[in-house]
Amino acid sequence: MEPHSVEDLAVSRRGLVLFVAMCVIWGIPYLLIKVSLEGLGPVDLVFFRFALGALLLVPIALSRVEIRPLLGRWGWIVAYTIIEMGIPWVLLSDAELRISSSLSGLLVSTVPLIGVVIGLITRSGEHHGWRRILGLCIGLVGVGVLVGFDVSSSTFGAIGEVLVVAICYATGPYIINRKLSDLPSLGVIASSLLLAAVAYAPAALIQLPHAWPSGEVIAAVLALGIVCTALAFLLFFALIREIGPVRSTVITYVNPAVAVTLGVILLHERLTGGIAVGFVLILCGSVLAARAAPSRT
Fold first, then answer.
1. For residues 47 and 196, what is the distance between their CA atoms, to the nearest angstrom?
2. C-alpha distance across the termini of the chain, in Å
3. What is the mean pLDDT of residues 121-145?
4. What is the dihedral of CA 197, 67, 228, 177, to 10 degrees?
């Protein structure tokens, strides 16, 4: 009998709770980014997000985490920081200057399919049964239905930026799972946020707005830094350990539902029949992609 990987096991109750929490928490940032950009530029926004997360987590990590193992793996921590945070967050913020929060959230839902492709290329040993492949394809069709009528020549650049974001988000979990899984998650997250904050600080200080942003913008930035960054990464590391890197990225199939709902209700973004059909396809694909593969003996 072959040993089962975490990807082949049924999702536990704890895994389900973490999954649902991440579906909601990482469905909210698209709205918060859109609101924050009313008073800040993309670079300033990501700097404050990094800085808030680091300010919250670094003191806790210093009191609870052994630093030496982190120093021994600094290269992979830097790589994870660049791929999971440094590149995608500024690209996503820049893209939302030209496209809706709903569309950006929907485009990021290509992450699970990209994750499967990465798994196949790297021969990670994870089992991709036909149900999972079918689910990922159905979900991708749903994304196509959702955004098919919203793409124009003026938004190609922004769409390209978000697709790069999706590639980065699909790659990050593999770095965690294969190179950093034995390190304390709190230490990795705190180190990454601190590194990113320091890297973005010079550019952010040059571009600071001349006047204080509105209370609404400040509240959105605080929510991004505290809830959608510090808390979210702690939960996401736990989710990867519980259900594996591929199934953990399936949250990006449900995140768009949250992003579109908030965009329509709070930002008055357009709701169409294609969105309704796309939601059904995405949710069906999510169920199939997250379903446990049959046992192999």
1. 8
2. 5
3. 73
4. 110
CA distance 155 to 174: 30
This prediction's pTM: 0.81
Is the Cα dihedral 183, 186, 189, 191 positive or negative? negative
Q: Which amino acid is it at 31?
A: L
Dihedral of the CA atoms 185, 190, 193, 195 (nearest 10)?
A: -110
**C-alpha–C-alpha distance, residues 178 and 13, integer Å:** 24
Note the pLDDT of residue 126: 57
Give the chain's mean pLDDT: 82
Q: Which two tokens stand for residue 255?
A: 């995140």
Residue 41's region, left for phi above 0, alpha for psi from -120 to 50, else beta, is beta
> Measured in whole angstroms, how far is the alpha carbon of residue 284 from the centre of its chain?
20
